[in-house]
Amino acid sequence: QWAAALDLLGTAISQGPEPNLISYNALISACARGQQWVLAIHLLEKASVLQPDTITFNAVASAAQRSEQWSQALALLSEMALRMCEPDAITFSTITLACSQASQWEAAAGLLRELAMQGIAPSIDTCGRLLMECEQRGLLSTEVELLLSFLSLVYREDGHRDDLLIASANSAAARLLACGDGDGARGVLRDAKLSGHWNVVSEHLWGKTPGVAKTPFGWTMQTVAPVAAARSHRGTDLYNKEFRLLRYVLRTARAGDPSSVCEAIETFGEMERGRSGWWLKIAGNMKAELLSSAVRGAPPLSEGPTVLEIGTYCGYSALRMALHVPGVRVITLEVDPVHVIIARNLISFANLDHVVDVWTGHSQDLLPRMALRQGQEGLRFQAVFMDQRGSRYDEDLALLELHGLLSPGAVLVADNVLKPGAPLFLWRLATSGAHQTQLVAVEEFAMPTGDWMSVSVWTPGSWRHSASDATSSTSECMAELLRLQSEADRTRAKAMRPGRGVTFEDWSELARRMRERLGLLGIAATAEAIR
Questions:
Q1: Based on the number of CB atoms within 10 Å of its own CB, is 175 exposed (0-12), middle (13-18) or buried (19 or more)?
Q2: Strand ranges (DSSP E) for 266-405?
Q3: 3-state DSSP call for residue 439?
Q4: What is the number of other CB atoms lying within 10 angstroms of the CB of residue 368?
Q5: pLDDT digits (tens, 9 = 90+) for 378-423
């Protein structure tokens, strides 16, 4: 409500009390959200007598970024220098994002190098966004530079920083190999070995580079540190669990054996449940069997189905589908660049990197691009697995349909539709004439509670009974769905905090409430998975 905020400022100037810098910062932030770039600059000038601080300039930079004014955003750095105001990570990240959105890659890369020189860490979101743009635009050298240099600045936890450096180098080498640059991959791996950043995945990738000995210069492969050497199980490190998973799999599974990799991931998840009470969010055991069975029922193609997964996490489900669906090709999307790196390492270790492609980026950015990626005919999927934030499911399904990304008869599987829940998505499936759906009650992996998975077949033009027939008022129903969606998002956000934010008892209670309230809307499980 930037206009209302501006009125309040005018009242304060004319009637008092006199607005201070905090007032101006808040108003500039409102203008940024409203994409009012010119007004933000005007307010910066009016606040000049109050000595604008870094927060002020960050708000103006955000306004420039949201209004796609990259040159004006870049000019703010000079203005800050004149005012003896130090930029921080938010300043650099916001301006870098503005430059990348405008395809000003030299400027963006220069800002990232400045960040590195000053020892300032860019945000995870900024790194992810830049990596996405590099992958989609074919800017391989910039992508490799990001992986090798800048991402390590983001993550400074001593217990796993070396893990990230090793995994990042492996991810860069894997990308170079996928793009046909064997010499580049060999150079990255050689440098990683010289700096002591080498593991069994590096060994595997080195063996894939053309015309070289199995191990560089006869070096002995460094032993991967055991899982016990990692940080405390209850550390506050955001990626503590994921890096310990990577270490465990590389230590216990067999290289080139996807089954043993999947088994090791499941074993680690079960161990976490008993040892630390943490839940490893994978669709394991009965869920994995249901997913594989559903995807095998996708429309047949001579070369095998192309499957889209939204929400890679560490790559478990992509590996399961690649392992159990003959001839499948999996494209999997993940917004978190650290998860992308870990997934690529596990997929390379399983020797399925020729089957599974991991793309960095958010589904809302990548799905519209897919329609144009493969030429005039576009890219179409015979199956889709949704395992991201449940409140995105209905929006992503709309994008898939809008951009023609589904083949007729495509199978759509969605996890966790009961807990944390995807109420709007379930309503869309129940009321749309384009989906024949089963809601399957299934036991959650490594958690003593139940969940639902939805399995749908996309049949555009068909008609079926609507769940709205069981409700008295569509508006009342939508209000209740929005309340349920909000509750699901709050629980999901709490669960993503470092440490154990949601107990197993909390999950069970949420599932019970969701089941009961969705039932009043005519939405209930229609089948049960039995082992």
A1: buried
A2: 306-310, 329-334, 356-360, 381-386
A3: strand
A4: 13
A5: 689 999 999 999 999 999 999 999 999 999 999 999 999 999 999 9
Summarised one tens digit per residue, pLDDT across range 225-283 is 443 333 333 344 678 899 999 999 999 999 999 999 999 999 999 998 867 767 889 99
Q: How far apart are CA 194 and CA 206, in angstroms?
A: 14
CA distances from residue 445 to 137, 147, 318 in whole angstroms, order as listed: 38, 32, 16
Name 334's Cβ contacts closer than 8 Å, sequence gap at least 6.
Answer: 311, 312, 313, 340, 343, 358, 359, 360, 361
Residue 472, pLDDT above cutoff 80: no
Tell me how far apart the alpha carbons of residues 210 and 202 are, in angstroms, rounded to a whole number: 15
Q: How many residues does the chain have?
A: 531
Are 396 and 412 a contacting pair, CB within 8 Å?
Answer: no
Alpha helices in 403-440, H assignment, sequence order? 423-431
CB 70 within 8 A of CB 96: no
- Do β-strands 306-310 and 356-360 pair in parallel, antiparallel, or remain unpaired? unpaired
CA 453/CA 417 separation, integer angstroms: 6
* Two structure tokens written together for 430: 């129940």
**Buried residues in 295-320 as b, exposed as e (16+ CB within 10 A):** bbebbeeeeebbbbbbbbbbbbbbbb
Q: Which H/E stretch holds residue 451?
A: strand 450-458
Cα torsion 292, 297, 301, 307: sign: negative
* Collapsed DSSP state (helix, strand, coil) of residue 351: coil
Q: Which residue has the tokens 């589908």?
A: 321
Q: Please give the pLDDT value at position 142.
A: 86
Q: DSSP assignment of 53-91, as one string?
A: -HHHHHHHHHHHHHTT-HHHHHHHHHHHHHTT----HHH
Six token digits for residue 483: 């309340």
Asked whether the beta carbons of 233 and 302 are under 8 A apart, the reply is: no
